[in-house]
What does this fold into?
Amino acid sequence: MSIRREDVLHVARLAELEVAEGDLPRLVEQLGRIVQFVAQLNEVPASERAPAFLAGPAAVRLRPDEVAPDRLIHGIDRFAPEFPHGFFAVPKLGAMDGGE
Amino acid sequence: MSGVAFIAEAVGRGKTTAATVAREVGARLERAAPLNATLDWSQAVLNREAARVDALRQGGGALPLAGVPIALKDNIVTTDQPTTCASRILEGYVSPFDATVVHRLRAAGAIIAAKTNLDEFAMGSSTEHSAWGRVLHPLDPSRVPGGSSGGSAALVAAGVVPAALGSETGGSVRQPASFCGIVGVKPTYGRVSRYGLVAFGSSLDQISVFGQTVDDAARVLAVISGADRFDATSATEPPPALEPARRDLTGLTFGMPREYFPADLDGSVRAALDHTAHSIQQLGGSIKEVSLPHTRYAVPTYYIVAPAEAAANLARFDGVRYGPRHVGPEGDVRALYRATRGKGFGAEVQRRILIGTYVLSSGYYDAYYRKAQQVRALLAEDFRKVFAGGVDYLLTPTTPTPAFKAGAKTADPVAMYLADIFTCSINLAALPALSLPVGRAEGLPIGAQLVGPMFSEGPMLAVAGALEAALDAKREVR
It folds into this structure.
């Protein structure tokens, strides 16, 4: 199928990516060619129930739930501007514009 | 200064010091500056690394990499240098922890020499997609060194360091190793911990090794391999034993898959591979033509799976948690995400995020991502059958051509993707493989690829050692 300008804009919104107006024609053309290229897979007969590939072991290994030291070179307090009483202080939900 | 074993022996026995090695490496890094292969290094960091190694040595422990300078692709995190993934979106970012491979290298006495340039977020096959400019091929500056680990490859090929780490998702170490005339080893998926490797395609990514020689790469791989409690995908197999190079290949069968030798294969690559096959026979090995029938679907499968996983992994770079932030015109948080990501990611990364988001989006998931994972299972089954049918290793070209000219493929993403045609199916099947230099055409190196069954790195490196000794990698093939 072909890729339209609206498709690129829709996918860019889903991907939280700002796309400059001037880049749109190039992206429509390049994405169209890439999608056409990967659509070759439609030639491969595979039923809906054909197994999908799994990288790594088939079953996740369970391991003892032990507290072990991490590798951070500084305390977690340094990850946030405010860390009162052992908690991360963050803006109130909906208050990103600076309001309370 | 020479190979890994030579330096480790000299520093380990006190014939020289890590400080002396560090000064020499600094001088070589200075001279190699025109290659644009590094994103961060300093003599101060080198000296600090060397002082740590010299103190370790006086502590008396066995150090298999004593004083060995090793460069790291800049998508492997370090606490004392920035990690940017060659992206503006991570400019100035310094990790609060070291990658497991960095821990293991340091514990073995290695000197972390430099952070190297790459295609942004490891997306590319030429190291032209870096926010800090392209890397030059050490033998011909008009050409690319391959990618995405082109900076690490160029430093090893230029003799600045004997070994370096890169990462592979679809061939990003074997392909530049082939272009630059050095050894590149992609281990089995899970062989090396990925804790501290910035994720691109999580079902494919694997930290991989460059060496000037097979022995250099083998020694580094032995140190960085093994289970890691910080990486649930790391395998429990013990690290590959360091095996001496085989003297002959008697009793071994090498499969040459016909799909990897198409009619339009570059003549010099074909000649170099014919010569390699002849050497295998002279060493007592046998050659058998085999078929991997789904090979032609490997690149399209890869370019669904890898971008889909990349779109998910790169969602974390939003201007809130890492790197510089661009506030959008509307001043809300989604505008902040969009502005930061739109300005922070380069063109190739944006393309892959868009493709990945598209193939995962509602209505398309089954047609693309699910189908690709099914075809991937068929590709893996092709390899399984060949190895079950009496083939010990596969012999293929690593790349369809020697190093191409800079700019030759940047306008056409699909042409660039096809540079990975002989490497990416191995990542899709989670197998180990290596690229070995086997000849040159008009001065440009050509690599042969060996592929083995899961966790066969030790014996495969011993086989590569035999070929390395038998072949003159600088010989012109026509």
